[in-house]
Specification:
The protein is an alpha/beta fold. Helices cover 47% and strands 13% of the residues. The protein has a 7-stranded mixed β-sheet, sandwiched between helices.
Length: 269
């Protein structure tokens, strides 16, 4: 006798678990937290995950950018440089010592060293070059300031001047003694010097801190004044042109009258 076995009913495939719905409240809370803290994830001070510092930022100098060497092989940090300065630190970055563009930049800071440091800013060059290369560069060009060596580019990256994947962007970074960012800008040799020149000029002519709102109001007033002057000049010019045209019309009318009189006399004869 043949035993008949029941065929098992095929089981339906298990449906995948429903995707978790996005929680708009939670997402909003995360965004607010990121805005308040200024970072998405915890990171070491000076890390480049949040991009370069911006003007007005107050950076924590402790540990910022790690440790670098001077051209005479002395270990130092940005925190120490700021503490040793009178009013702050200028770091101008350059790709490679003794190359044409970098030599031009270094010599421009050399030639303007006295006025640029007049308000108490300490000036330093910063690159990934070795102490030996930077010492040779400093000696040959007779540079009056110290050159900083950052072979790992940690400080260069922290101030936003590191190129990806490798290299250094030419630029300038300025902070006051407290760590407040006064300037951070990439640019050519002349442009980097000009940034510091304008900053120093502003410090010399301003006894109190000028807010951005005060600057905005001043600029608006200047525009209004210029606009008013331009309007007055246009009105005056228009008046002068109208007067000249009127005189010309009168002169033409007089000529026409003389011609008519002459013609009438000839007809009478």
């Amino acid at each position: 006798m043949v035993e008949l076995r029941k065929r098992k009913t095929p089981t339906e495939p298990t449906a995948p678990p429903p995707a978790k719905k996005s929680n708009p409240v939670k997402n909003a809370a995360i965004k607010v937290k990121e805005t308040v803290t200024g970072k998405k994830d915890a990171a070491t001070n000076g890390a480049s995950t949040s991009g370069k510092p911006s003007v007005g930022d107050l950076i924590t100098l402790e540990g910022f950018g790690g440790e670098v060497e001077t051209n005479d092989a002395t270990k130092t940090t940005l925190k120490l440089l700021a503490e040793e300065s009178k009013n702050g630190v200028v770091l101008f970055t350059y790709p490679k010592a003794s190359t044409p563009g970098c030599t031009t930049q270094a010599c421009m800071f050399r030639d303007d060293f006295t006025p640029l440091s007049a308000t108490g800013l300490s000036i330093y060059g910063l690159s990934t070059d070795s102490p030996k290369s930077n010492t040779t560069f400093k000696t040959r060009q007779n540079l009056p300031y110290t050159l900083l060596c950052d072979p790992s580019a940690k400080l260069i990256a922290a101030i936003g001047m590191k190129k990806a994947p490798k290299g250094t962007t030419r630029g300038v970074f300025v902070i006051d003694k407290s760590g407040k960012v006064l300037a951070v800008e990439a640019g050519g040799p002349g442009a980097t010097v000009e940034v510091v020149r304008k900053l120093v000029a502003g410090t010399e002519t301003t006894s109190d801190e000028v807010t951005s709102e005060e600057v905005r109001k001043f600029m608006e007033r200047e525009k209004e004044i210029e606009s008013g002057k331009l309007h007055a000049e246009n009105v005056e010019q228009s008046t002068q042109e109208d007067g000249a045209a009127e005189k010309e019309d009168v002169a033409k009318a007089d000529v026409a009258a003389d011609v008519a009189d002459s013609a009438e006399k000839l007809d009478g004869n």
